[in-house]
Design a protein that fits this description.
With about 120 residues, this protein is mainly β. Helices cover about 0% and strands about 50% of the residues. The strands form two sheets. Strands 2, 4, 5, 6, 9, 10 and 11 form a seven-stranded mixed sheet that branches.
Length: about 120
């Protein structure tokens, strides 16, 4: 497993932007698929975006396509989520996850961070 720490969350007005970071420990970061998930109060955790270990493959939830961009820097053991045109519905705790296999299903991911709060005001 890898240890993951998210940062970059905060309070932003609708239409604003935030960039989340996920720092990973371990020498094998480059061999892990990485993903972002979120969980709003009273709702189940849901998929947001995923990126393969090379960065060549990415997937997004329909609700964030064209607004969010996932990326990674294997030299820095860090993954990012650029979030633009944020909406109140994007309010949630955002988690990063890592797994040797690529998946968009919440249950498939092995390692999780502690989460970072994103709040979008209207």
């Amino acid at each position: 497993q890898v240890q993951l720490v998210e940062s970059g969350g905060g309070l932003v007005q609708a239409g604003g932007s935030l960039r989340l970071s996920c720092a990973a420990s371990g020498r094998t970061f480059g061999s892990y698929a990485m993903g972002w998930f979120r969980q709003a109060p009273g709702k189940e955790r849901e998929f947001v975006a995923a990126i393969s270990w090379t960065g060549r493959r990415t997937d997004y939830a329909d609700s964030v396509k064209a607004r969010f961009t996932i990326s990674r820097d294997n030299a820095k053991n860090t993954m990012y989520l650029q979030m633009n045109n944020l909406k109140p519905d994007d309010t949630a705790v955002y988690y990063c996850a890592a797994d040797p296999r690529y998946s968009t299903a919440v249950a498939d991911w092995e390692s999780w961070g502690q989460g970072t709060q994103v709040t979008v005001s209207s």
